[in-house]
Design a protein that fits this description.
The protein has helices spanning about 40-45, 110-115, 120-130, 150-160, 170-180, 195-200, 215-220, 245-250, 260-265, 265-280, 300-305, and strands at about 1-5, 15, 25-35, 55-60, 60-70, 80-85, 95-100, 105, 140-145, 165-170, 185-190, 205-210, 225-230, 255, 290-295, 315-320. With about 325 residues, it is an alpha/beta fold. Helix 8 links the parallel strand 13 and strand 14 (about 255).
């Protein structure tokens, strides 16, 4: 099978031939049809992600496909079922073996591309806004990086939950995408004063931040009393330091959100969230925004779009098999 393997944290990953794996007990083997790219894939390649596997490894955190073979003891899902899986690695290959308990059946009306773009982005935003921040109707939600893979879903979900949504992104084109996703107000991070603009709109009750750096600092200073701040990631490369005395003055709360972490200590949070999200998808309430689709051999082009922060929504890699070339 063809697979995108990371063999060094200093050299680019390459697409090579590897043996097709056999599932262990409790695992399924998936005939992978599509894999969604995430900023965390870039961090894994550099060896700086919190869950970076040992070298060498096949990249790709979230996939969709058809169950091919099941290992000993697996009663669900069964061969032939269409499923999505958050595996953490191994998705950028024609076949992969994953924990059967992580496989989620996908709706009949959902494409493999949508399914591969769905779990991490929508799951992160839903768990962050509903489970962690308890976002309320008519509260003001500030979304940084609002046209990116997770930011755009936060705009969508925040609007569905009844919040007033302020979208902050870089440039008019990205802001237009956020507006179409439901944003009520737009802030251009390249030319506008984030703090001043948010305060003029009444301040933020919840801040959703996959960017970090100066944007976090500006948003922090634009928070209302009892606001909740959600660090999702640090696409800027700058992890902000939070002054505890400022938290005290406004009674602010900072809530870290690592979606994949719940699988290890509270998986029911993920299961319940995905049940809600797939229902919303089937009702036409949410739809992944996929800006680019590449074949496996061009995975590095997709990675470069993430690295340069040129993509909007999700970038998806498709896997060719005999019969779907």
């Amino acid at each position: 099978m063809r697979a995108y393997q990371i063999s060094s944290h200093e050299a680019p990953a390459t697409v090579i031939d590897l043996p097709i794996p056999a599932p262990a007990a409790g695992e399924i083997r998936l005939r992978i049809m599509a894999c969604g790219l995430n900023f965390a894939d870039l961090l894994m390649q550099k060896g700086t992600y919190q869950d970076t596997p040992s070298l060498p490894f096949v990249g790709g955190m979230e996939v969709s496909g058809i169950v091919d073979v099941v290992g000993a003891g697996v009663t669900f899902p069964s061969p032939g079922m269409r499923v999505a899986v958050f595996g953490g690695q191994g998705g950028l290959a024609q076949y992969g073996c994953f924990d059967a308990a992580r496989a989620v059946p996908i709706p009949d009306d959902m494409s493999f591309e949508d399914a591969a773009a769905f779990q991490i982005a929508y799951g992160t935003s839903h768990v962050a806004l509903e489970y962690r921040a308890r976002l309320q109707v008519d509260e003001t939600l500030l979304v940084l990086g609002a046209a990116g893979g997770v930011g755009l879903t936060a705009v969508e979900i925040g609007k569905l939950m009844g919040a007033k949504v302020i979208a902050c992104a870089r440039g008019a084109d990205k802001l237009e995408i956020a507006r179409k996703a439901g944003a009520d107000h737009l802030i251009d991070a390249t030319s506008m004063d984030i703090r001043a603009e948010v305060k003029a709109l009444g301040g933020a009750d919840v801040v959703y931040d996959p960017v970090g750096g100066d944007q976090f600092k500006a948003a922090f200073r634009a928070c209302n009393p009892e606001a909740r701040l959600l660090p999702i990631g640090f696409a800027s490369g700058d992890v902000p330091q939070i002054p505890a005395n400022h938290l005290l003055v406004k009674n602010l709360t900072v809530m870290g959100v690592y979606w994949g972490g719940f699988l290890k200590f509270k998986p029911e949070v993920i299961t319940q969230s995905l049940t809600t999200l797939f229902s919303w998808y089937s009702q036409g309430m949410i739809k992944p925004h996929i800006s680019q689709i590449f074949p496996l051999e061009h995975t590095n082009e997709g990675m470069d779009l993430l690295r340069q922060r040129k993509s909007t929504g999700k970038v998806v890699i498709t896997l060719a098999h005999e019969g779907n070339q």
